[in-house]
Task: structure prediction
Amino acid sequence: FGFSDMREGAFTVRAASGSRTSDLRFVSATAQEGKPALGGLPATFASDAKTLRLVLRDVVSGLRVTLCYTIFEDVDAIARSVLFENEGASDLHIERAMSLCLDLTDADYELITLSGAWSREREVIRRPLAPGETSVSSVRGASSLQASPFVALARPDATECAGEVIGAALVYSGNFYAGVHVDQHRMARLMLGLHDHDFEWALAPRETFQTPEALLTYSAEGFNGMSAQFHRLCAEHLVRGKYAHAPRPILINNWEATYFNFDEEKLLTIAKTAAKVGVELFVLDDGWFGRRNDDTTSLGDWQVDERKLPHGLGSLAEQIHGLGLKLGLWFEPEMISVQSKLYRAHPDWCIHAEGYERVEYRQQLVLDLSRAEVCEHVYRSVRDILAASPIDYVKWDMNRNFTDIGSAALPPERQKELAHRYMLGLYGVLERLTTEFPDVLFESCASGGGRFDLGMLYYMPQTWCSDNTDAVSRGRIQYGSSMVFPPFSMGAHVSAVPNHQTGRITPLATRASVAMSGCFGYELDLNALSAEEIQEVARQIERVKKLRQTLLYGRFYRLRSPFEGDETAWITVAPDQREAVLLFMRAMARANTMPELVRLYGLNADMRYRVEETGESYGGDQLMRQGLCFALPTGDAASVSLTLRALE
Ligand code: GLA
Result:
């Protein structure tokens, strides 16, 4: 920025003189095998990769910039990040620091974003590029329910299965900017990185600043091709730990079954039935600690509420384990209730603007994770519980965004560093906890999918997709999410009807068919189901256990978009193409229909497949060229979930 380009640049650094002009000149280029880690930030890892480091230096200020590019052996993707260093004698101030800047020679693209709201996460929005700027962003302190740190640029003729698509996503969970600027010559510039709103970073001599990593993918096979690259990046180069490639336990969560109103007996009654039908993990959600009978109190007081659990967590764990189930626990460690012992002890530990009213959302404030002592406390409060009781799973929730942004610990001139320092603090806590408890399965959550991003996935292999558990809504949410995120990253549950968020009644079969395309579970009172329904649940679980390796780790193809019509269809195909599961769902009942015909993708053209549910068999080429014909049940939210298995 500052010379004849005239567009917004990828970075702005203010020198001690006040100048924001920069003139970077080439210093060196080196290539190395593999990929170095990014200090303190989540990032992809790879041994079979090559990394190019381009070093540039400003002619006046002493600013040194290293552009880091990694290419992978097995994915059509580039990872890009930037390191700023101050080699001068006086302070520099970074006002803007994008992770990725890509200039394209034309603007004949459409922009695809994932935009949404609470309970309506990641809707696929497609719009043509036009002169000027089009962007999505978050300045909420989290990647947000409203927008994903992702954009795609697609040729206008691109479809799910054909055409050119460039995808870009940020490996970060806080404030971000993702946008395209089209100039006077109809050239497009794509940029992705930390949002520059309310951001500034002071860089003293010899200090460095590392941007988050951006991932750029290319596909000539439409959006499914792009998603395959992202899914592979997640599976092979981002998600870590023992669950990265493992079957995920089928869980039951008590939230929609009991909300805050439970005691040990009620939980055990649900757990007993769950164990009988084949569930593997019982998750105790919000309300087990402090004095929390509603959402007005106790965040920060992570001690068991002995009125509800008189024998403590250890005893609960023993009883749950005795039933053959694992035990999971909900936490919201980044938050503080005004009504809590923690707030009384440390009223300055929350994010707040001195002198202004402290704005509560869901009756809570955000702990200031830019402070080392607050991070230490958050780490210890979770560690102490995990160390004291045998907890197998943690749901890590985060239910509000930042307001009245300020830190009691940062000096006035560094207040704009808070949002990013918060993320660095959080990542530090997560790194410690996930390293110290490698056997615990962590699921991230933020009022549903409010922080469903590649940054959180680096620490936690699965994310609760949405608080909306209605099967029809979930068709949309999981379809949109799958643009970037693989099935194994999406928490998806069968819940009661009428659905608590939409009031809709959907068949139990449809609820399960949609949920089994992710990390499958139930979130209802199993004891409220009829005997027939319980049998159906047991059959669903048996089926998921057989198919989950394919459902979670197979290749996922979107076939019919709920954003373009009333139908949702997708198929997951095992890596060896010998097993596949097709989902087809229609939201509104339709009279006078013909059998459905859906063209399948990803099968082996030379193999013959048998549809388990109908007994019919077809050639793979026929299924992909002509399609699979099947009858849909009548009624709203009717669906089929069909298993295809290769013969011989
Ligand atoms: C958030 C989560 C829910 C549930 C509640 C508990 O809304 O998204 O799944 O855990 O908090 O308060």
Remarks:
- The longest strand covers residues 92-104.
